[in-house]
Amino acid sequence: MLSPQPIRILLLEDNSIDAEAVSRQLRKSSPLFQFTWAETLAKAKAELGAHQYDLIIADLSVPDSSGTQTISILRELCRQTPVIALTGLDDEQVEQAAIKAGAQDYIVKGELHGQALARTILHAIHRQVAENQTRNLVAELRVSQRDLKEQKRLLLEKNEKLEKLYSTSQEIVDNVSHDLRTPLTVIKDYAAIIHDGLVGDINPEQTQMLGKILGRADDLNGMVDDLLDKSKLEAGLLHLSRRTQSLDSIVQRVQMLVANRAASKQVTLRLISEDGDISVYCDAEKMTRVITNLATNAIKFVPQGGNVTLRTKRSTNGEDAVVEVVDDGAGIDASELTKIFGRFEQASHHGAKQASGVGLGLNIAQKLVALNFGRIDVASEIGNGTVFRLSIPLPNPACIAGRMAESWASKMGPVSLVSLCLPEAKDQRQCDDFERFICGSFRAEDLLFRKSDNRWLLLFSGNRSDVSQWLQRTESDFEQMNRNRPFGALPGFTASLLDDDGRDDIETVKKLLQQEWDREDELKDVADERTFGSEELTLGTPCDLVPTNVLLSGAPGMIKHNPVSRLGVNPGCA
Questions:
Q1: 419: closest CA among 489, 520, 499?
Q2: Which pTM was predicted?
Q3: pLDDT in tens, 181-217
Q4: Are strands 105-108 and 83-87 parallel, antiparallel or unpaired?
Q5: CB 262 within 8 A of CB 299
Q6: Helical residues (DSSP H) of 40-110, grouped into ranges
Q7: Strands 455-461 and 307-314, how do they pair?
Q8: Which of 14, 372, 437, 531 could lock 492 by a disulfide, CB 3.0 to 4.6 Å apart?
């Protein structure tokens, strides 16, 4: 066991009798105290320069110094060593002056007692150690603060450079895409005119060559689309308009887009609908793009005279529809399947010529499918072709809301459920136009479900205040849209917050969404109620959406703000 370390003390005292008294008291209290005696401040300085001490006991009056100046000089010389003032005066003012000068404690010569002196010394050392640690921490924090400020400055500079680079790259992509599209459009138009014999007859060989030109132009156009979509995805600027869609209409459009390509390669393109037309919830344009990409790839890699099948059916899980793109090509090596959806990756089809492209199509397709809460998988066997399987959710609001919560789990904030009505709609076209307008007014993380011809449920990512701000922005957009609508202004719409005791977590709102979706009872037709003007429109039970208690109901181009009413639950718009 290690023995305790001795405590080295420097005693500055010009009186030998007082010095002996201090020495005797120290020896009596503990053998650990070792002290050196210096009669003058000059000798004390020399000792401090030559040796290290744990404590200094200094008389306030020595031949070459007097008063608290002695303490100040010693503290300046040894900032991390505690100093105890020693004096024959029991004076409170002297004591305060000594402490102010830097002394850790104050001892009167006539009151020296062994144990009390020892405790005073130990307490002074402990306080000084704590003070030193604090001072070191403060110094380290100041250094860290300076470093952080410098790092912040450098990061701001780097961020500014990155923003400029990103902006430049975005501009380059947009400009290049635009510059490519213009000549591509001309090439495709003229090639199609000649191919269709509109400017004179052409022979079969020329027809085949023109078909290849059109096919390669489509390839290049697809690459431009890939680059644009990738750029928008990374920037978070890709707009989504998810609604209930007809799956048959999506697949039939894909057939129309790839028919010429299949015909030019003498590939038989089949459509099989095992369960008839199925309603799905997605962005139709994005899903058309994904399935077209899969079908185009299949046509590329099947041999001439091969077969490509687009098959639709319901999933066994009861939550999705499935689109399968099946080909009888050479198949894909198993080692390639793990990387097929990677960025700038292209699979090597067994025995097939490598296709042109930048390797972004499947990577983008996977991301687009995920944004529509579906999945995409691939299965292949050498010699037996390839099957790409795409799942798209059925229009089940609670299920889709759950998938949204899973996909946004790391950054899921509050959500609100808003009911929207177009009570005075005159025909289906007005309702459809209003739905398209609303879809264009919110973000990718918001979901719109159509409950009936003129009623919708909006799952909005935000709290009550966010809903109010969104509706205020929508007011201005609605007004502008109505001014420019060629068939006349749309009638006013109403908006109400469906609230469950003020809770805005996803699980609570999901249950409320399912309840409202399953409601079969509808309120009476509200077309004869006033939705604009100075009269108050009652929207049901108050739920205090915002402190100002605003009623948000849209007249043509206007959302009404009524200071005496509240935005509340409106069962009639459920």
A1: 499
A2: 0.59
A3: 778 888 888 888 888 888 888 888 888 888 888 877 8
A4: parallel
A5: yes
A6: 41-50, 69-77, 92-101
A7: unpaired
A8: 531
